[in-house]
Amino acid sequence: MTLLSAPLELAGEWGASTPEDALIVLSRTREVSLTGISLLSDNQPATLRVESRSSGPPHVWLQSSTQAHVVVDGTARDWCRMIYQFGHELGHVLSNSWQPDSLPLRPSQWLEEVVVEAFTFRSLALVADSWEQDSWLPGETGYSKDLRRYREFLIGGYRNGAAGSKQWLNGWFADARAAVESNLGGRAATGPALLMVLGELVRDKGCVEDLAALNRWRDRTAASFEDYLRLWGESCTELGTPGRLPRRLRQVLYPDENPRPSLRPPEPYIHRPRRGEVRQHAAALDDLLPLEHPVRTVWALAEALDLQGALKPSIATAASTAPVQPALLLALWLWATAEGIGSARQLERLCTEHLAFRWLCGGVEINGQTLRDFRLIHGDAFDKLLAHSLAALDKEGVINLAMVSPDAEKSQVSEEPARGRQNLKPRAILAAARVQELRAALDRDDPIADERHERAARWRTAKQQGIHVSAVLAQMKDLSRTRPKKNER
């Protein structure tokens, strides 16, 4: 019996939610949160009881040594709130905080709360993705959008708490330790640590598995923070979880600390690149972007086009409402479409967070309304220019649209004539289809679309790199083989 397979039963007053619908939502929330995770704790409940109460905060009721008893407010049909509450308390159960001796204790309780909250945000993203693919309840097909907005709203409080903190987490922790251990400033005060842990949980499911090793020692969160991390790491070793999350926390919070002595001989220290650290650099945008980056060609094309003649109505109309260089707006939409982005709000965020888009903007502040208005003002003329530009850039190898599945793309493009303008036609058709497909997302506000797009891009890049590396290794192996000499005649 594991936390995922333990029978789930409902109790209390569910009001407008109805127990039947609530059971579907809670069961599937648990499923998407824990599926694919190795649940290795030796202290898992035999049953999971979820009780709905209209008053009081959500919590785990510490009264049984065999049954995990979670309390939420499920009286209203507010699935966002209920999923968040249940996901958070499920995280505490996963972290072995559900039995009578599991009282929250200082000074290290804040870290358990941070880890559990990050687990909840990970779960909310997975729930939204699952709900979008297959609506969990009749008549609730668009609810994934509400879930993403709610998640972004909650994370926003932690981002605000992290604003203005020192660029290194160890510096933040040195300054904020007394406050967070005393629970001063509330959850928002732990923003830097939560955002870091959330990133680790999203990137590596092994870090999620490490939660099952929490609090398996007598002192639980009453241990000092240094001992808490050490005991957590030792517990990971005992259970057989990866142990990467406590190790990562120690690396970022104590980067200069020598490892504690252990029974095992210490491993030799090796300097390894740490590309995930957030650091500030004083450098021109143009120096940060490689000279061969394709977005430079996209910008050169946008500047070279005769936009006054290509777009109807005239550029002057757009400039009267959005005083931004038209070539810049075109270049932003060109690069966004090549990257599979159609939402004006998402593009606005990328203009401040993603290097290629920041380079295009060159310090110009761009908002989603400006991007949206520019596109709507020019209508079909802009879409046509966008499709033709993308097709030409794709043909020249500047970008790779990946507009359809690999098999479909091969069947339509690989049979083109080797030379001449005719081979632009299939690409133009595909580009036009891609432009129209993404145009439907123009007004869509999807706060975690960036995260989903980043995950997909990382997966594609890693896969392609794996193919290249395997091919190179095979060629090197061929070169190193000893070839027999040819017999002379």
The percent range for strand residues is: under 5%
Largest sheet data: 4 strands, mixed
Principal-axes geometry comes out as globular
Q: What's the number of structural domains?
A: 3
Give average pLDDT, whole number: 81
Radius of gyration: 27 Å
How do the strands line up in the largest sheet? 1-2-4-3
The oligomerization state is single chain
Q: Based on DSSP secondary structure assignment, what is the total number of beta strands?
A: 4
Q: In terms of per-residue confidence, which ranges show pLDDT below 50 for 5 or more consecutive residues?
A: 258-263, 313-322, 403-422
H/E series? EHEEEHHHHHHHHHHHHHHHHHHH
- In DSSP terms, counting alpha (H) and pi (I) runs of 4 or more, how many helices? 20
DSSP helix fraction: 55-70%
Distance between the termini: 74 Å
| Structural class category | mainly alpha
What this model shows, in words?
This protein is mainly alpha-helical. It has 3 domains: 8-253; 285-447, no CATH class; 449-481. It contains 20 helices and 4 strands. The protein has helices at 19-34, 79-94, 109-133, 143-162, 169-181, 191-203, 205-209, 225-239, 244-253, 285-288, 294-304, 307-310, 315-321, 326-338, 344-353, 355-361, 368-395, 406-413, 424-439, 449-480, and strands at residues 8-12, 47-52, 59-61, 67-72. The protein has a 4-stranded mixed sheet with strand order 1-2-4-3, with helices on one face. Helix 1 links the parallel strand 1 and strand 2 (47-52). Helix 1 packs across helix 2 and helix 8 runs antiparallel to helix 9. The radius of gyration is 27 Å and the shape is globular. Residues 258-263, 313-322 and 403-422 have low confidence and may be disordered.
